[in-house]
Each structure stands twice: as C-alpha cells, then as structure tokens.
Amino acid sequence: xxxxxxxxxxxxxxxxxxxxxxxxxxxxxxxxxxxxxxxxxxxxxxxxxxxxxxxxxxxxxxxxxxxxxxxxxxxxxxxxxxxxxxxxxxxxxxxxxxxxxxxxxxxxxxxxxxxxxxxxxxxxxxxxxxxxxxxxxxxxxxxxxxxxxxxxxxxxxxxxxxxxxxxxxxxxxxxxxxxxxxxxxxxxxxxxxxxxxxxxxxxxxxxxxxxxxxxxxxxxxxxxxxxxxxxxxxxxxxxxxxxxxxxxxxxxxxxxxxxxxxxxxxxxxxxxxxxxxxxxxxxxxxxxxxxxxxxxxxxxxxxxxxxxxxxxxxxxxxxxxxxxxxxxxxxxxxxxxxxxxxxxxxxxxxxxxxxxxxxxxxxxxxxxxxxxxxxxxxxxxx
Length: 382
Ligand SMILES: Cc1cc2nc3c(=O)[nH]c(=O)nc-3n(C[C@H](O)[C@H](O)[C@H](O)COP(=O)(O)OP(=O)(O)OC[C@H]3O[C@@H](n4cnc5c(N)ncnc54)[C@H](O)[C@@H]3O)c2cc1C
Known about the structure:
The protein is α+β, with helices and mostly antiparallel strands. 35% of the residues lie in helices and 34% in strands.
C-alpha cells in the first residue's frame, strides 16, 4: 500500500475498476483499495443489462472483447399485465447491432481486474476504507487491512464502494423485493428482453445464453413465498404471472432476493472527495439503468481528471464542475426509474387504462419510441 497516491479509489467493483482503467495510462498515480481479500469472489451475484452506450465505453478500455458470456438484446418488449397495450423497441429501428447486452457481473468484474493487473494501477485487496477526512490541499484516507490501520494521503479520493459507506443519502423504500433466478422456457428468446409491468411491480426476462435471467419484483412477503416454493410450483406461478409470450417455463435455478430502494446523495462532492456509481445513487433495477449510469459517472470523471492540472485535481471547483456535468443524466435516470415503478406498480383502473394507452401510443409514434430508446441506450445527455 502506498502512503500517497494522486488518486485513491475506495472500492474496486465494476465502477471503481472502470475509472481506474480509464486512468491507467494517464500521468496520475492511481491506487484502488478493495475490501474483498479474494478478487475471484465477486461482490454480488447478478446479471447486468448493459446498454449499447456502455459497450462503447468498455470497448474503448479494451475489455469488451474479453467477455465470453455476452447475450445480445435485439428487441425489448414492454407490456402491462391485464391490458392490451404494448410496445416493442427494436435495434434495427435504431440502426444499431443491439439495444444492449446481458453480461454476468462476476465475469465483468474479473475481466476488468485482469486488465488492471496488466496496468500501472496499484490494486490493494483486503483493504477496507473506514473514513475519509479532508485537509487543505489533500484528503486523508483511513484503511483497515489485516488488523492494521493505515493512512493514505491523496489529491482525490473517489468513493466507489457501492453505497456500503455511511454517507448521508435520500432513501425511498419501495416495499418491494427483487427475486433473481435463471429460467429456461419452451420458446427460444431470439434476443428479445421482456419488461412486463404488474400491480405488484415489474417482471423482467433478460435473454441470457439459452434461457433468461429473471428479475421478478413483488412485495417482500410474496418474494419469501416464491423463494420457498418447490421448482414446479414456482414455474407455474411465474407462468401465471408473466403470461404466454415465451411458452411454459421449464426450469429454474439460483433463486435469490434483494430488497429494493432508491438511495442517492444530494451532494456527491466535498473537497478532495467524490462519490460515483452506486455510492452516489442506487436505483430500482427496472429498465436496467443503474450500472450504465455508474459507468458514465466513471467515464466522465476520468475525462475531467485527465484534462486537469495538479493544482486543480480534487479541488472543490473541479469537483463541482464534475457534479454539474452529471446532474442532468443522474436526475433524469432517478426520475425515470422512480416514475416507472410508481406509475406502474398499482392496480388503479384509471391508471391501468392510461398506461395501456401510453404503451400503445409509444408503439404507434416512432419519434417517441426513438426518444425512449436513445435515452435508455446513451443516457439523458445522448
Ligand atoms: C437485483 C439487481 C439487479 C440489477 N440489474 C441491473 C441491470 O440489469 N443493469 C444495470 O445497469 N444495473 C443493474 N443493477 C445495479 C448494479 O448492480 C449496480 O449499479 C452496480 O453493481 C454498481 O457498481 P459499483 O461498482 O458502483 O458498486 P458494487 O458493484 O457494489 O461494487 C462496490 C465494490 O466496493 C467494495 N467495497 C465496499 N465497501 C468498501 C470499503 N469500505 N472499502 C473498500 N472497498 C469497498 C465492494 O467489495 C465491491 O467490490 C442491479 C442491481 C440489483 C440489486
């Protein structure tokens, strides 16, 4: 562990690792502090839906081609349980090879760390950041490693700990849990992802390999029941809830659950300190926006840091400019996902009717559909 680095990144998850890699060939000395002692054990078991825009970032970093397990999302089918309204976004209509890609969190994490190992970035494992204090001209990072306490000084401490730290954040509980699983179905996915809104919350089926990754949102009580069901009963319950679009559900494995919250910091910067990724904002997984937003945080911060001189690095002035540059994208993503959850997760018959009309209108008005697709692919700033 170095006692001083120009930039210290607290958290080597996919967002922190992306930032480190984007700065690997800069003039700055970069150090990543990661709490996991063993990098072969990913921090989370989950499937990520990456947008085409995120692919472009990972391509520029030279890691995209190293991912083996990538499934293309060619189309996204959006519908509402109990109504006829639906909309289908198509990659061909956007002039893109795919609208997005389904990847495994653990594989992405491992590919990013392989690339970091071959770079000039220092990655320290088993190192848990406990506090960050700022002084005139630098931040002082306190780190616990192997029972010992260390201190590192830096011009810029980047918090990318996924929200594990105790910083003050606005929190909205959704009273929903997400049940995650892998399922196979009677009909092939043909690269189509499904987002189906129900009064209990959205259900997403993301094409992955020969089957689908399932994200089934429901009340905590319902998720507990679903987790406890024998496989055959679970598959029937899923069919009854999701409908017939992919035929019968044939198998399920690796069921797990997460509580869902919206949590974000109103102020993500302080002198010599900035939060990015899930540390800055944790979103509901509807529409798969969270990681894509975090990746854009990392990319834009790297661009700003590359261009600044030593005096400016980590100054409040520089960090406020970064925060302002991210505001539209962040606020729009928070608003968009929160609105989707609140608008669709209820059984009000009037709303049910308007939502159905809204989906039909989206399907019938190509410019509106194009706008939604671009927003999901490239973020609010296009
Ligand atoms: C059910 C579910 C499904 C999701 N699906 C999608 C999706 O389809 N698409 C999408 O874009 N996003 C999705 N997300 C969100 C996505 O998982 C996150 O946006 C992403 O993991 C954020 O990455 P991160 O690097 O900021 O944080 P994390 O992935 O949480 O990584 C944080 C890292 O910091 C380390 N760490 C923690 N504390 C410390 C400390 N004190 N010191 C040092 N290191 C520390 C951890 O060990 C970890 O390695 C989903 C989330 C959930 C819950």
